[in-house]
Amino acid sequence: MVGYCPICGKPVYFGEKKRSLGRDYHPLCLKCQKCNRQLTAGQHAEYDEKPYCSHCYLKMFGPRETSELDAGATAVSAPESNFHSTDSPSGLFDRSRTGLGLAANPGVAVRISDSCESVLTELETDGSGEEALLLPCLAGGSSSPRGVREKRGRRSRHSSSSDKDTLASPGTNSGDFNHFPDDPEFADIIQRAEQAIESGVFPERISQGSSGSYFVKDPKGKIIGVFKPKSEEPYGHLNPKWTKYFHKLCCPCCFGRGCLLPNQGYLSEAAASLVDTKLGLGVVPKTKVVYLASETFHYSAIDRAKSRGKKYALEKVPKVGRRFHRVGLPPKVGSFQLFVECFREADYWLRRFEAEPLAENIRKQLQSQFERLVVLDYVIRNTDRGNDNWLIKYEKPGEGGDGGGQKDSEWPENCPDSCIKIAAIDNGLAFPFKHPDEWRAYPFHWAWLPQAKVAFSQETRDLVLSRLSDMNFVQDLCEDLYEMFKTDKGFDKTMFERQMSVMRGQVLNLTQALKDGKSPIQLVQMPRVVVERSRSGSQGRVVTLGNAFTQTFHCKRPFFSSW
Fold it and tell me: Could you tell me where the Polar residues compositional bias lies (predicted)?
């Protein structure tokens, strides 16, 4: 549902809204009505449905605890849980909660309304503004949503800005989308990346690969991550590389991967990191979905022309420029993976290890890390795992870790004698909705390595077997993936369920292989299984394989069985 900006009265669309205190603003409209200072979402006060900075609010209306409020004012506090709960907005604004008499949290922005006579703490939800429509009902008012919008529109027509108002710097406000309250360390890295872009340190396009991917830097020019926009994926409409274009032009019958959903590589990257975290493998650098905008990204000519025109209008005709909903290039959604240092392609080190045999303890560490890579790739059914897109960091004894490598605290194994680690990157071509059965088989290239002939170690079995054999854990993993995948505009629940059916089959095979003491090469030779949800299965929290799922074997083979 499209919301309306309470300042200008115009529609606010999803890609450009700035949500604060249950209202949707245009980025340039959210400013103090007294000093015209640009405000941050959730970090301001509101009086009579008008936003004010804390300084002007205290100066004009006094502290929040003084008698400036009406005598009948009540306080409503938000539940002490995350705002992505299953409660509906009507549940959060239940009448039974309004009589608690709790004091407003001093650290939370408040709304003060003469019409409702209430003080409300901010509730950031992902809804469509339903909580704003429920507020008149709490005070017994009878005004309709249409009347509220008309009132806001009349108020916005009477308000005006002088030429001496402070202008907002032209930008894209990509930070409005990047919120990671559960991971402050990752949020700080994204903030540094945004600051670097604002200061002119732009991301650098990576020459390798068949899609648009970028090295993102901090303000000092140090690489801190790899950003892969959705629109610049191998089959995206803004892919700056010509490889896939000629592929589609010359070989249309072999174009694309028929087992994968198009333009979901960024979600696959983030989902692989989620699976890695849930299983405790520690081989995937932390990856999340973020929004970034930069001049070095590949935009269409229309987007660049619109951006130049808006910046020129804001500079030359401020009154016109302030009316734009967004100034600058639009943010791009994509996956952001933390950069790992002192790692090299696995193909390089594997050739070195053949010429220079490893010590027994180092060989066991390599085998343990390799088995974690196998577990990850098999569960997510990675269709693009060659020896050039997983990395190895090897430090010979005595070299130390001062070479700028990844800190041991960021990896699960904190053994001081650990000298070898593996990083699984390029996970964008995973989570198929069916097993490959058309032209190519997309095999795991690590299956031809000598490490794949060794049976899974007891360490690996102890790490993942208890989790993978628990169908309730697998169901929780599917639910977490659902919450991630449903954010995509092209999300299809039926196709997602087919993706999870393939993943459950992979988990079932892996569980059996670990119980039987098989090796990775024996694992990939097992019959391909699809575990579909049974229509008559149990819908409770306790899930078992027998009464909730149906197991089937996928017998169709691709034309090229080993390519």
Answer: 79-89
State the DSSP H helix or E strand holding residue 252, giving kind and residue range, or none if neither. none
Task: Give the model's confidence band at 208: pLDDT under 50 very low, under 70 low, under 90 confident, else very high.
Answer: confident
Question: Strand locations in 23-149, DSSP E?
Answer: 23-25, 45-47, 50-52, 74-76, 110-113, 118-121
Of 150, 152, 153, 117, the C-alpha closest to 135 is 117
Distance CA 324, CA 177 (A): 19
Phi, psi of 423 (to 5 degrees): -125, 120
Q: Which amino acid is at 183?
A: D
Query: What is the helix (H) or strand (E) element at residue 479, kind and residue range?
Result: helix 471-485
Q: How many domains does the chain have?
A: 1
pTM of the model: 0.66
Q: Max alpha carbon distance in the chain (Å)?
A: 83
Tell me phi and psi for residue 392, to 5 degrees: -130, 135
Domain that includes residue 43, residue range: 3-158
Are 213 and 228 in contact, with CB atoms under 8 Å apart? Answer: yes
- 86 within domain boundaries: yes
| 405 assigned to some structural domain | no
Within a domain: 128: yes
DSSP element (H, E) containing 265? helix 265-279
- Please state the three-class secondary structure of 315-349 as a single string: HHCHHHHCCCCCECCCCEEEEEEECCCCCEEHHHH
Alpha-helix residue ranges (DSSP H) falling in 11-144: 54-61, 89-92, 130-138
Q: Say how far apart CA 7 and CA 217 lie, in whole Å.
A: 36
Phi/psi for 133 (5° steps) reads -75, -20
Residues with Cβ within 8 Å of 494's Cβ and at least 6 positions away in sequence, in order, are none
Beta strands in 201-294 (DSSP E): 204-205, 214-217, 223-229, 287-292
With a CB cutoff of 8 Å and minimum separation 6, the contacts of 59 are none
How far is it, in rounded angstroms, from Cα 168 to Cα 156?
A: 19
Mean pLDDT along residues 91-120: 37
Q: What is the pLDDT of residues 248-302, one digit of tens each?
A: 667 666 666 789 998 899 999 999 999 999 999 999 999 999 999 999 999 999 9
The residue assigned the tokens 């704003």 is 132
Question: Per-residue pLDDT tens for 361-405?
Answer: 899 999 999 999 999 999 999 999 988 899 999 887 555 544 444
Rounded CA gap, 358 and 183, in Å?
A: 37
In a domain, 63, yes or no: yes
Which one, of 389, 217, 367, lies nearest residue 294 by Cα? Answer: 217
| Length in residues, the chain | 563
Contact present, 214 and 197 (Cβ < 8 Å): no
Please give the structure tokens belonging to residue 345.
């392609």
Instruction: Give the integer Cα–Cα distance in Å for 377 and 529.
Output: 16
The CATH number given to whatever domain includes residue 35 is 2.10.110.10
Cβ(329)–Cβ(307) below 8 Å: yes
Q: Taking Cα atoms as reference points, which of 141, 41, 132, 150 lies closest to residue 93?
A: 132
Dihedral Cα 460, 465, 467, 470, nearest 10 deg? 170
CA R_g for the chain: 27
Q: Which residues of 169-184 are buried (b: 16+ CB within 10 A; e: fewer)?
A: ebbbbbbbbbeeeeee
